[in-house]
Amino acid sequence: MATSICARGLQGALVSSFQGTWESSISGDDYHHALMQSVPRFVTVGKPICSPPSMKNVNEGKGLFAPAVVITRNIIGKKRFNQLRGKAIALHSQVITEFCKSIGADAKQRQGLIRLAKKNGERLGFLA
Question: One GO cellular component from the entry (predicted)?
Answer without folding.
Answer: chloroplast
